[in-house]
Amino acid sequence: MDGAFVGTTFWRLMAALPLTLEVWFLSVVLGGLIAAGVVWMRVGGSKPLEILARAYVALFRGTPLLIQLFIVYYGLASLPAVRHSLFWPILREPFNCGVLALGLCTAGYQAEIFRGALLAVPHGAVEAARACGMSRLLLFRRIVFPIALRAGLPAYSTEMISMVKATALVSLITLWDVMSVALKIRNDTLVTYLPLILAGAIYFTVNYILGAAFLSLERRLSPHLRPRPS
Amino acid sequence: MDIFGIFGFGEGGWGLALLAGALMTLLVSACGLLIGAVIGSLVAWARLSGHRLAGAAGEAYAALFRGLPELLVVYFVYFGSSTLLTTVAGLVGYDGFVGVPSFVAGALAVGVISGSYQAEVFRAAFLAIAKGELEAAVSVGMDRWLLFRRIIAPQVLRFALPGLGNLWQVALKDSSLISVTGLTELMRVSQVGAASTHQPFAFYLGGLVLYLAMTLVTTRLFDLAEARATRGMRRIAG
Predict the structure, then answer these.
(1) What is the reported pLDDT for B29?
(2) Separation between Cα atoms, residue B151 and residue A102, nearest integer Å
């Protein structure tokens, strides 16, 4: 095994990183939007909507992402109703299916994180804001959102890292992400360890940077928790 | 064939195969959780020992396997262990490929991942034991082993139970990735059924329902175990 092989393998894997990151970013954003809706249903006060939201969370958190992904990619495509529908041009593309499945799944987790963060907002703070005459929007913007953001951030950063790891599954629906390029190199060259180790190093580095970024954001947002300067 | 025929237990029905797959999923996940418990308690021990090198190694292990995609770990353990065994077999004079059974590789992969998370659960559980109890046990003259058996182990298990319940769910879901190694667990059976009947939607949905049933039922079991383990404790939150 020579240095040139290590180099070419590394750069071939790096060339696939943009797709991995793209799937990650789009599915996280999509998941966040869905999660906002689910949380709104969950805490909105309507019983049927609450049950629906609970069922959504139980379904997507209680089953493996892999089978959800296969239902979206292989399952939906086999239904004539879907093939002849308006959505077929979207669902035909494996990229869109990957983003959709990952987004639906992370929405279940993100919804619980958002809900937990909302529960961390002290009732007294909301009451005080109401007593001052804040409108609902102002109350959300000035009181609820900043407190909930701080409370939810640690769990949210864990979920973001899980999602980077979850993107590896799109290699099983014919997308050329870092994982599938590593497997392709392994199959072509019959070198077992190196492609997988290099791919692992890339994923690990991405997660490390992401974790550090979230940690520094947490520190920035919680100046009141910093140790007193001596 | 209609839907009852496909999922039925009669001739050409896939009911039995799916149930057998679900059983395999439970089995491989349980083995993975046990392997993870062994790894996790060793890593937790290393981190609590106060030994700097051991602590750093434990921390590095946990950080590494939490930062890698689960699918990559499954592939690495599966391909890697077979390559390793083949190399070792070559050294002792056996030529040819030696494969590790996919069940063993799969349980090992799930265990290695689960262990990195269980380490943290066990560490937190140990730290939750009241310090005075450990001091009291030492002062009445318990040796290390007795202290572990009577004071530490029962309480660590009690405090770790909620965390272990979550990690059991994670192991159950991660076990679906073992399907890429060809082990006929639930995910793999769903794939084979989908391919041979050309009904992917029905099969993946059937698999999904079985997974959901397994997580819901086993979560309930963990809740019951938790209620039993903490029956003598005052609690501040339900």
Answers:
(1) 97
(2) 44
Question: How many domains are there within chain A?
Answer: 1
Smallest Cβ distance to A204: which of B67, B180, B212? Answer: B67
How far apart are alpha carbons A157 and A169 in whole angstroms? 20
A155 touches A116 (CB < 8 A):
yes
* CB of B216 less than 8 A from some CB of A: yes
A29 touches chain B (CB under 8 A): no
- Give DSSP secondary structure letters for A199-214: HHHHHHHHHHHHHHHH
**Can you point out the beta strands (E) in A89-159?**
none
Residue numbers in B near A58 (CB within 8 A): 212, 216
Per-residue model confidence as pLDDT tens digits over A96-145: 999 999 999 999 999 999 999 999 999 999 999 999 999 999 999 999 99
The residues, any chain, with a CB within 8 Å of residue A140's CB and separated by 6 or more, are: none
H and E: helices and strands count for chain B: 10, 0
**Residues of chain A with C-beta less than 8 angstroms from the C-beta of B211:** 62-64, 67
Interface confidence: ipTM more than 0.85:
yes
Mutate to test the interface with A, among B110, B175, B176 (most CBs of A within 10 A): B176
**Chain A CB contacts of B207 below 8 Å:** 67
Who contacts B177 (Cβ-Cβ below 8 Å, separation ≥6)?
A64, A66, A169, B70, B71, B74, B109, B187
B chain contacts of residue A212, beta-carbon cutoff 8 Å: none
| Neighbour-count burial for A99-117, b at 16+ CB within 10 Å, e otherwise | bbbbbbbbbbbbbbbbbeb
Q: Residue A104: give its domain's CATH number.
A: 1.10.3720.10
Nearest alpha-carbon partner for A211 in A158, A148, A168, A162: A158
C-beta of residue A113 within 8 angstroms of C-beta of residue A159: yes
**Structural domains of chain B in order of their starting residue, each with its CATH number:** 24-183 (1.10.3720.10)
Cβ(B238)–Cβ(B227) below 8 Å: no
CB atoms within 10 A of CB B211: 25
Question: Is the Cβ pair B187, A66 closer than 8 Å?
Answer: yes
